[in-house]
Amino acid sequence: MIKIEVSEGKLPWIVGIGTVLFGILLSVLSIIYPGGSETIMKFSYLVIFLIIVLGMRLCLIGRNLKLTVEDETLCYTDRIGRKKNFTLNEIAYCKAALEIKRGNKNYLKLYNSQDALLCKLDFNMRHIFIFLQYLLDNHIKIECSETSDRLLKELTGIVEIRPEEIADKVNSVYNDAVKMVREWAEKNKQFSAEWKIGIAVYNESERLQEGFFIMLEAYLQKDGRFVFDNKNRPVAISTELLFVDKALRMNKELKICFHSKVLETLSDHLSYYENILPKNRYHMDELTLDHELKERYLEK
């Protein structure tokens, strides 16, 4: 059975209770130390009343706002306690935005086939990313805003593939990644460095079982030695290509998930190092990897 509860965290309660207590404190002080004209006092009492009401509203939000999922049945409770029940089949698509650095847009909106809003959540809520995975696992289309943070784009860019597609997709991404790191080295000749890149397969003895995953890894090298930063950490890029896990569906079958945004993530990392390398000190040293970096994924 699938059970998920998306709810507000402790912050609304903490802020709400603190606001109420602050309002009560102000009211006590205004009684003990009255001052000003009658009009000013009435205005002060109105402000104190509004502060207390605001605090109580925040507490109500913390108590009421939630979405519960039981298998394919969903129940949404809004800020004032009204409930709305709907099923997974009624969700036609979702719109999502996580733009903390660009205007603080933060929402996950669910719509039905008539474009009517079923409910609105935000990514500060507890278990919201589990619910997002539930939607993805059940093939609900999620429209992600162009300026959302990379985390949301990566999550919504995960697609399920069949076992026979693994080799072609992994090898295709690897070939494109090799071109990207070579172009980076050519563009940044002043570093006199290049990337050692490859495919790392983990839990290889348990292929297509839960916990099996494939990473795309790259390590910066200069003169045949690995580059380390001033904290003695190798300058490296590691991003997940594929993983196998249980799906949040009724049958809980295994799913093979492929990250379709891997090359975008790699590009972001390369741009980061292009900017940061000239600003810090680095040194070269030997490094023995405890796993093989492969140039090709082969099916067993």
Key features?
15 strands; 300 residues; 30% strand; four-stranded antiparallel β-sheet; alpha+beta; seven-stranded antiparallel β-sheet
Nutshell version of this structure?
The protein has helices spanning 11-32, 38-64, 128-137, 150-156, 166-187, 262-276, and strands at residues 3-7, 66-70, 73-77, 83-87, 93-99, 105-111, 117-121, 141-144, 158-160, 194-202, 213-222, 225-228, 236-246, 254-259, 283-285. By secondary structure, the chain is an alpha+beta fold.
Query: What's the count of strands?
Result: 15
Elements, N to C (H/E): EHHEEEEEEHEHEHEEEEEHE
Strand content: 25-35%
Total helices: the number is 6
Outline the biggest β-sheet.
7 strands, antiparallel
User: Which structural category do the helix and sheet elements fall into?
Assistant: alpha+beta
Rg, nearest Å: 26 Å
Give the overall shape. extended
Distance between the termini: 34 Å
Mean pLDDT: 86
Name the helicity range. Answer: 25-40%
Pick out the low-confidence regions: none
